[in-house]
Design a protein that fits this description.
Distance between the termini: 20 Å
GO molecular function, one term: hydrolase activity
CATH architecture: Orthogonal Bundle
Organism: Qipengyuania pelagi
Number of helices: 10
Order of helices and strands: EEEHHHHHHHHHHE
Number of strands: 4
Radius of gyration: 19 Å
Structural class: mainly alpha
Protein name: Metal-dependent hydrolase
Strand content: under 5%
CATH topology: Ribonucleotide Reductase, subunit A
Shape: globular
Keywords: Hydrolase
Pfam families: Metal_hydrol
Length: 296
């Protein structure tokens, strides 16, 4: 994998994805039985936020898979063979995530939540990507993968996010979080390889512009989706908006706590593995070793 740092297009360097990183498929299943309607142990704002987030994953992760697969290295194009193997493992992990979020979303629907409108909005947004250059879809995927990796690290590092939640639902989110951290560099390394003929300035400018657009749409749409689900719980108006704001920005403050990791994306020479948080993965794998299976 050839990446570049700063704005010096003439100085390729090896991408800082750890050489000893192994992307492991953890074949786990969750939420096949009943769980509390408000799985956040009676707290509606976290419930609505995570239900809204989960509703986007089946179509969203299918989009990620296709965007990365469209730029798989081919024989003789100079890519590190390790990237090809990591893409295969990434795809397998994302397929499993899709399966489990379909099950979770079905459970939410069984408890009376109508999340079809969220799925429909995602479908409509993805329809807008038809016909645009494939590299644009990869740039969007790279930005959203950074979002998921940031959220994943926060979930695993801060027990407050799950201290009052349903145990099985919390286990699903932790499992998903571990694998998001593990493959957080795959879309980025694929982007670096796909744009290897670009100048470092162009690569930096495009990925940062896309991140700004993705951030605005992500926050706006998840806010709208969450308020819609809160309304189904009978929480509307200022109570819904203020409660959701406190959840996101104060306690546990998931969005507030993402500010610095989000800003790091914009620095020249950034790579997702600038921060090696594999210790979070190791802790999880130590607790659930029976779920591990080879990626190949």
């Amino acid at each position: 994998m050839n990446a570049q740092t700063g704005f010096n297009a003439a100085k390729p360097i090896a991408a800082p994805t750890p050489a000893d990183l192994t992307i492991t498929v953890r074949d786990e299943r969750f939420n096949r039985a009943a769980t509390p309607k408000r799985w956040w142990a009676g707290e509606p704002f976290g419930t609505a936020w995570h239900n809204a987030l989960s509703a986007t994953f089946p179509r969203g992760e299918a989009f990620f898979i296709e965007a990365v697969k469209a730029h798989r290295p081919t024989e003789g194009d100079g890519a590190d063979p390790k990237l090809t193997a990591e893409i295969r493992a990434f795809v397998k992990q994302e397929i499993n995530h899709t399966r489990e979020h379909i099950a979770f979303n079905r459970l939410a629907e069984d408890h009376g939540y109508d999340i079809q409108a969220i799925d429909k909005r995602v479908e409509e947004l993805l329809a807008l990507t038809k016909g645009r250059p494939a590299i644009a879809n990869l740039a969007v995927t790279m930005a959203l993968e950074h979002f998921t990796a940031m959220i994943a690290a926060e979930f695993l590092a801060n027990p407050k996010h799950f201290e009052i939640s349903d145990l099985e639902v919390a286990a699903m989110w932790r499992w998903h979080a571990v694998e998001e951290i593990e493959h957080k560099g795959v879309a980025f390394d694929t982007w670096n390889h796909a744009t290897r003929d670009w100048s470092a300035w162009r690569r930096w400018r495009v990925r940062n512009l896309v991140m700004l657009i993705v951030t605005a749409r992500f926050l706006k749409n998840r806010w709208i989706d969450t308020l819609m689900l809160l309304e189904q719980d009978g929480i509307t108006g200022w109570k819904a908006r203020w409660g959701l704001f406190k959840y996101l920005a104060v306690t546990p403050g998931i969005i507030r706590r993402l500010a610095l990791p989000w800003l790091s994306y914009f620095k020249p020479g950034f790579h997702p593995w600038d921060h090696d948080d594999r210790a979070l993965i190791g802790k999880y794998d130590g607790e659930f070793s029976d779920a591990l299976m080879p990626a190949e």
